[in-house]
Amino acid sequence: MTITFYTKNHCPLCDKAHKILEELQEEVSLEIRKIDIYQSEELIEKYGLMIPVITAEGEEIQYGQINKESLRKRLLTINK
Questions:
Q1: Which of 6, 51, 8, 56 is nearest to 30 (CA)?
Q2: Topology classification of domain 2-78
Q3: Which residue spans adopt a coiled-coil conformation according to this UniProt entry (predicted)?
Q4: DSSP readout, 25-74?
Q5: Whole-model pTM above 0.85?
Q6: Rounded CA separation 22/4 (Å)
């Protein structure tokens, strides 16, 4: 499964979320597609106040303060 991880530089919440995603890769087959929102005005407008944002199959599944356990459950549900 490919997930998209919207992030920006110098973002402690983003760093923490990325670490959680890397840990979950050991349990769930994930490809992490990392996108800096500052590549696009549209992304800044859409996600500027929400980042980090994790999407899968076009759906936002978590944003802001990422919770590892609920994210794991959500990813396992999507991956079925």
A1: 56
A2: Glutaredoxin (3.40.30)
A3: none
A4: TTTS--EEEEEEGGG-HHHHHHHTTT-SEEEETTEEEEESS--HHHHHHH
A5: yes
A6: 13
